[in-house]
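Fold this complex.
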Amino acid sequence: MEAQKKPFRRILLTGAAGGLGKQLRERIGAWADVVRLSDRANLGEARAGEEVVHCDLADRDGMLALLEGVDAVLHFGGISVEDRWDPILQANIIGLKNLYEAAHKAGVKRIVFASSNHAIGFHPTTVHLDADSPTRPDGYYGLSKVFGEQMSRYYWDRFGIETVCIRIGSVMEVPKTHRILRTYMHPDDLVELLRCSLVTPRVGHTIVYGMSDNDANWWDNSKAGHLGFRPKHSSREHEHLFPFAGYPADDDEPSKYQGGPFVIQGPMYE
Amino acid sequence: MEAQKKPFRRILLTGAAGGLGKQLRERIGAWADVVRLSDRANLGEARAGEEVVHCDLADRDGMLALLEGVDAVLHFGGISVEDRWDPILQANIIGLKNLYEAAHKAGVKRIVFASSNHAIGFHPTTVHLDADSPTRPDGYYGLSKVFGEQMSRYYWDRFGIETVCIRIGSVMEVPKTHRILRTYMHPDDLVELLRCSLVTPRVGHTIVYGMSDNDANWWDNSKAGHLGFRPKHSSREHEHLFPFAGYPADDDEPSKYQGGPFVIQGPMYE
Amino acid sequence: MEAQKKPFRRILLTGAAGGLGKQLRERIGAWADVVRLSDRANLGEARAGEEVVHCDLADRDGMLALLEGVDAVLHFGGISVEDRWDPILQANIIGLKNLYEAAHKAGVKRIVFASSNHAIGFHPTTVHLDADSPTRPDGYYGLSKVFGEQMSRYYWDRFGIETVCIRIGSVMEVPKTHRILRTYMHPDDLVELLRCSLVTPRVGHTIVYGMSDNDANWWDNSKAGHLGFRPKHSSREHEHLFPFAGYPADDDEPSKYQGGPFVIQGPMYE
Amino acid sequence: MEAQKKPFRRILLTGAAGGLGKQLRERIGAWADVVRLSDRANLGEARAGEEVVHCDLADRDGMLALLEGVDAVLHFGGISVEDRWDPILQANIIGLKNLYEAAHKAGVKRIVFASSNHAIGFHPTTVHLDADSPTRPDGYYGLSKVFGEQMSRYYWDRFGIETVCIRIGSVMEVPKTHRILRTYMHPDDLVELLRCSLVTPRVGHTIVYGMSDNDANWWDNSKAGHLGFRPKHSSREHEHLFPFAGYPADDDEPSKYQGGPFVIQGPMYE
Amino acid sequence: MEAQKKPFRRILLTGAAGGLGKQLRERIGAWADVVRLSDRANLGEARAGEEVVHCDLADRDGMLALLEGVDAVLHFGGISVEDRWDPILQANIIGLKNLYEAAHKAGVKRIVFASSNHAIGFHPTTVHLDADSPTRPDGYYGLSKVFGEQMSRYYWDRFGIETVCIRIGSVMEVPKTHRILRTYMHPDDLVELLRCSLVTPRVGHTIVYGMSDNDANWWDNSKAGHLGFRPKHSSREHEHLFPFAGYPADDDEPSKYQGGPFVIQGPMYE
Amino acid sequence: MEAQKKPFRRILLTGAAGGLGKQLRERIGAWADVVRLSDRANLGEARAGEEVVHCDLADRDGMLALLEGVDAVLHFGGISVEDRWDPILQANIIGLKNLYEAAHKAGVKRIVFASSNHAIGFHPTTVHLDADSPTRPDGYYGLSKVFGEQMSRYYWDRFGIETVCIRIGSVMEVPKTHRILRTYMHPDDLVELLRCSLVTPRVGHTIVYGMSDNDANWWDNSKAGHLGFRPKHSSREHEHLFPFAGYPADDDEPSKYQGGPFVIQGPMYE
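Structure:
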């Protein structure tokens, strides 16, 4: 009996040495004959079905080479926390420009972009958002994610390169804070959302919030219904960890906004 | 012990010899003392609790007679696929006018109208719709369904005849194509939605999408919450049938629009 | 010195023997080298720059011939008041189908369609509408206008034939009733709106209300801002004609709805 | 082993001798070291962990004393049905003013206000509402609830006192009428919603509908997603009690509006 | 030659001794054969075409008598500034209840209610509102105006008594502060809006902002288009009076909110 | 007689050597005791009331010095057309970051940011936008303007620095193309909008389209009503320059989108 054909010949996972990248590396092998992994950090040896490429997002020529022969991209590379301007500029702004230029030149037609809830982090915790709500970044990091969403919007309007922008909440097995009860995304749910983002026949330019089926939530994903994403996990099973952590709230800024602690970390001027 | 009273004395099912009509004939007997069945095709013998009437929708006098003594109508008659203008004109336009005229004259107060997703079929597959989204018919057939929805709107505004317009997706046990994962409606769910449409005390002029609880979906039924319809089935149990049928999509028109293949079938000029 | 080039070679005015048609015939000569006029009624002799074609909208072959060689259409033909079903069916439903089929076959790329406020006539007089408000036809006539708007929507989505649907209010020099203070459109403003509808480079499928700059009004045209239509007239100069005609309103249906007397004229069953 | 710390030192339950008040008294002991109970009716003896205060809402000085030392309030006091003007004025209008004045002076920072579906009872049964839909009170009682919602809005804007306004449907174990299938709230779900309203870190001024997970429903709670309320019960298990109670509806006012029988009870002029 | 018939037999102006009342008394004589004037303050002698009635709004029996024989009401009575609770309760809450009860019993079918911008005064000065924006009262006074708007909503839904609620800005000849450039309403424009509110055939329950055609503005009146109100004046001719009164704003509350100084005046607890 | 006090002590105009900058330099002297002018190009001699500073936006230290002692900024510096990535990165991305960092450190509280219609240039010419419509940049340039709008949003949310983002259309005396009839902004109207943006007491984070009162238009400024901007000019007086330039449109991309020729200029990869 023949092995079943995989949906892609080659997909690229950037940021494969990062926190999420490492987890994803273990779980996406079934989606492509070859998974190309890239990072500027050490990725170790390529395993069966893998290609390993050392590349910095800010390296334009390197990026042009990296995208060659790729069918689809899972872009998890770049800075993933609030930081000083320069690293964010290099990886998340110049890097995004390099990614889309290279994708265009290499003929890549779909990208899944790891955006972040910090693109909307300055919305208060008492409002409900959907994909069309105005962005309100909560720092240089969030600002760079809005930039990436708009870069991808442009490449869709201009060249028909499709992108799913996932505004990822907090990916972990067990929520670490009371706030994360709302932003929680179980790793399985992230993998499922990536799968949906890759195999849905048409996605155009879709914005979706990356979260599990949490009881308490700030975000409405109905406009991404075409992706068919149904999370299987929920933070409700972990609510007992923060029994009275709620009211009365500390009178500090982080507890007022969806972005939580990020809203006071920036801007890091030096 | 007494038999329980049925909710209606007589309901009419048009199109009873059609694909859906035949299935419904088997399942709606409990709703009325008498189920009147009509079609222009052969309906066979009337069984217990049935009346069989041979009638063409375009036959005005026949329709006047058909509606006499009826409490409520399930209108499944007419052309149900893209077709040339003339048959659609006769059955779905003139027929609709005849139906509402006859219902008015006979004092019928509620109609459940089998509309179609083809009333909105030219919306792209990446947008989410609800009952108030603008219609975008994908052919003469879809256009005739918009006409029917508006005819029923008029009879509600003018005479208080209530209609539930069901924009039916794809009714079948097992989805036949990848697109149908989104439009899928299990026959049980259709029967349940018809029941809800008949027994809800007031429906005014309600538009509802006829679909099961599919993970991937384009339509939001919250504005029809008063109907109390909760589908029990989902296409998710059939997703394995189309494992990699999605991306990369063929670059053809049908895969771009919710109406699928219908969008290129018409207009059939002759 | 050379005569200035006219914007079109040949435009077609249907319904040229009708009330509005006659007025327009006098005023549109500057827009095309040839104005083709059609009606099923007598149009008299063709004048300089005119072609006269006798044609019934329900005559499919006649319509195919009529549209040959035409650059753009002003469609004012058909029934323009509430009427029995059959004449509306022939002229406004079958006629519309014939018009778009013929336009498609002849390569016509733009149509200005005389729709009507009766497409939304069952909205109460206390609500404000725009181009996306749900239609609520107030009779067979209004229903046929919704049908025409949807037919044109389909030809735009399917073949890129552009249409401006003008929901005309009440075109006259002096308002005849209190209601018309709200629906009033001075003939000059109609001519200007037709001009805008013809010369705007792209119109896609645009819906616009045909009214002057009346103080009292029910309709918002901002979504048609690309047309650049600014009415020069207003019913305010005629308000003195109906000094106390307002409150207390008669407790009849016509005064409750935007469609006025139309809302009780139909349906004319025979 | 130490007993776990309770989230509040002292909470106040007003209306503790009323129908809902009695049920709540049995179930909220775990939320505070001390539950202060008040009513103008007899509350019996204080039990362990309780304080009993006899107080009329219209008694301003009494209210000032009642709120002293309170961390949070569950306000279930006042008239809870349609009634004559004077009792509603005293308890629900003057009483509300007294409550918020006293809360302000005592430094109370959160109130859960038992509002009612009768604040929106004059909406037809065929429309779907959310927290921002315009209010349409169905009597003096509903009007007093809108007043309370606005009083609490003011204290949030002016002094940052948070309120969750719960537009309670029909709290009971088993629905008593067909209408209640839509408004049903199981007592457990009410307790859970109160808990969510108390322990969510920030609520600002939140409006939420108090209902179980009923299949048939008129209300959308997505804008209160930050509360994390997920009902566990549903009226669907009781639908068999009203098998054909629906169509055809009696042609009376109560069956046309969400407020049901309340819409014809008022105004009680004497 | 006969004198022209006036539109009303008898209209009632409450609050006729107040600031606006006195101005209106001079200007509304042409609208009715008899203008009944009421106030609890001295109104002086009745002139030709006038009736003078001394009446306190809180006096229920007096109000019942006052409304007898009245065709329409201009309700300008009650407290018109922020004040202590008791006077507002008596005049603006109990008084409103008395007014509508009396109107109902006397068969009055239309009321023009002087509401206030203070019903929405806690909206920031950087947002734009229309008739459906949520109310945010800025004190007891604003709260009483919301109450009146909702009382009138109820009488429209319950008995079909029509009301136009005018959220009056600042009526004066010359703006006194920089804020009033936005809220300015010339007295002529108020008179014109009252006229429109009285003579429009149907108004249902209409909310309209009372302002002139000011360049700087916070409010959108398009939903009241059926009234036909077009202001003739504008604060722009007075802008030179406050040349640099704007930026930098004082960092105080009144300059942040549309309600201006009212937002810090209340609540007046004693 | 004393000279009247000017509203600001010192305002900064960046880009003062550019096309618009030169015009503005001539016209803003009345707004401040000192107008500081900056550019990386030659600005000539400082005149009375001027300070001239040579500064590149990408020079962080230079920017810190430039903002010292400034009350408000008119930011017209940077690249103002589609260009290669690097100059846009330096001036419009890094430059914007430097501007806001410097403004923050210098205590500047208000900035007027010259954004551009190219932030929304990929919207079709048949849609109408307002300040909350999603952005759709039409190139690197438009993308940098979205970045600037979001940077300013962040500094408002984080530090309360106010910004008015003006999405400028086409500033010139006489429209040069048919498209510019829609985007036209007379220089006087730009100056007036800048004045409004500076002197309005509170602006928070306001987005406004910079256009004259053109008959044909794509943009709705009602959400910026608090600015009090009323343009005095209109492209209508120039429409005769492009008599038949409209229909039939060339079938090219630039005529399909609001951004016009920009939509095909980028991305300039080298």
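Helices of chain D lie at 19-25, 60-67, 85-106, 140-159, 180-183, 187-199, 262-265.
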